[in-house]
């Protein structure tokens, strides 16, 4: 199972589309993708209380995964929280650019 760490805030429609494509990319490589911001579309990311709750749930779900795959050329604040937690847990973190090519850590 692979946790998908990708941007959400900002260009939400574009980010959801890219996360969906990356989820399919992960699936096609024989993994079970877990993309949390596709799971909780009812939560309001602009509401700080709901955002914090979503990040809390994301961190719990991330703990069930064997690897964390990071998408994109920019690491958002939420993504950095997830990456730091993964590193503390010693979960493998892999990085991919916007074209889904694996790259070195940002």
Name the descriptors.
single chain, 106 residues, alpha/beta, five-stranded mixed sheet, 4 helices, 16% strand
Describe the structure in your own words:
The protein is α/β, with parallel strands linked by helices and 106 residues long. The chain is built from 4 helices and 5 strands.
Would you kindly provide a brief summary of this structure?
The chain has 106 residues and is of the alpha/beta class. It is built from four helices and five strands; from the N terminus they run βαβααβαββ.
SSE layout and pairings?
Elements: E1 2-5, H1 12-27, E2 33-34, H2 36-39, H3 48-62, E3 67-71, H4 77-88, E4 93-96, E5 102-103
Parallel strand pairs: 1-2, 1-3, 3-4
Antiparallel strand pairs: 4-5
Shape descriptor: globular
Which percent bin holds the helix content? 40-55%
Average residue pLDDT? 92
Look at the helices and sheets and give the structural class.
Answer: alpha/beta
């Amino acid at each position: 199972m692979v946790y998908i760490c990708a941007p959400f805030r900002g260009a939400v429609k574009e980010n959801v589309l890219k996360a969906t494509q990356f989820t399919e990319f992960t699936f096609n490589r024989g993994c079970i993708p877990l993309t949390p911001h596709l799971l909780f579309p009812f939560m309001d990311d602009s509401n700080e209380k709901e955002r914090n709750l979503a990040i809390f749930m994301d961190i719990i779900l991330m703990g069930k995964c064997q690897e964390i795959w990071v998408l994109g050329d920019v690491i958002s604040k939420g993504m950095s929280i997830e990456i730091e937690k993964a590193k503390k847990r010693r979960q493998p973190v892999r990085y991919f650019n916007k074209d889904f090519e694996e790259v070195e850590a940002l």
